[in-house]
Amino acid sequence: MRASFLAVIAALALLACGHPAAKPAGPPPPSGPVTEAAIVGYLQQSFPAAVAEGTLKLDWGSPDVPAEVVDELAIMGIDDMGEVAALVPADFATKGLDAIKAEGGTNAAGLMRDLMIIHDVRGYFEKAWRNHWSANGPEDFPLPVAYGVDFQVIADLGVFDGGGEGYDEGDDGSDSADGDDDDGDDDGGDDDDGGW
After folding, report:
1. Which residues of 33-71 are buried (b: 16+ CB within 10 A; e: fewer)?
2. Mutual orientation of helices 36-46 and 65-75 as an angle, nearest 10°?
């Protein structure tokens, strides 16, 4: 009887201490400083199908934008690639990419900014945005829309309709875009804020 008892104890010990738990499939979580190359590498490794089909473009739009985005991330307290990965919602590979694909895709800068907005909309626009870009309304934000971002916050901070105080995208000399060319007709300017 004693031998059977010892055999059972030994079997349980082997079972408990035997094989480590299986690790999840997929790439290891990123680590290291946030740089343009690290972000592009992470996106390429994490979402290869979206990159291959053009839903996620690994460009930045213009040469100054990568430094702006890395700076915005730092302002938001994100200075390690593990923290960048933590911005990505768990269901991003389906819900997020579907929202982006429905609107024709995005680039690295757009995705990183959208992820910061989803993470902390008020913090992003109060601290990091600094009038670097403008938007017309929620239609410019398919990913934040999909994740239920409060667009009233964005509107209140002056992001829509050409940026906030201090934004200057250049003046082409035309006043026709403001809907008031003093001829008395409605030039298509929208006086309704759409509920924002």
Report:
1. ebeeebbbebbeebbeebbeeebbbeebeeeebbebbbe
2. 90
What is the sign of the dihedral through the CA atoms of 25, 115, 59 and 130? negative
- Is residue 132 classed as helix, strand or coil in its secondary structure? coil
Residue at token pair 């989803």: 118
Q: Is 89 exposed, middle or buried (0-12, 13-18, 19+ CB in 10 A)?
A: middle
DSSP characters over 30-58: P-SB--HHHHHHHHHHH-HHHHHTTSEE-
pLDDT digits (tens), the chain, 196 positions: 666 654 555 555 555 555 444 444 456 678 899 999 999 999 999 999 999 999 999 999 999 999 999 999 999 999 999 999 999 999 999 999 999 999 999 999 999 999 999 999 999 999 999 988 888 889 999 999 999 999 999 998 888 865 444 444 433 333 333 444 444 444 443 434 433 3
Structure-block tokens of residue 167: 């934004």
- For the full predicted model, state whether its pTM sits above 0.85: no
